[in-house]
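Bench notes, afternoon.
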Amino acid sequence: MQIQVNTDHNIHGGERLTTYVTTDLEQSLSRFGAWLTRVEVHLSEDGGAKPEDKKCVIEARPSGKQPVAVTHHATTADDAYAGATHKLVRALDSRYDRAHDHKGSDSIRHMPAPEDPDQVGVFEDGGNSRDTTPDIG
């Protein structure tokens, strides 16, 4: 998983910020590590008169799927990043579970192949079977 950190000219970034964000995201997204190809973090200041003028946008790219992007506004860049990370983990958790689980169990896409493919769809006769299909012909 590749992690890229971008800041605008109002946010004082650097190697220390990049190291912190990279380490934190690797830990927070470790469950999805093999599933994600790239994560981009954008920290910026909206420049408005609002108290919550710091913004963090995090975009995660799962392999073979549409990207997932979340945004969080806060008074500090740290709070904006923490809020966006929390939202991203929840969004990825939901999408990952939907892709890999179906109503609480494994989906058919992830089931092992049958041992004997010729027996797929064949019911064993337990001696109590009654054929109720009408004879046609």
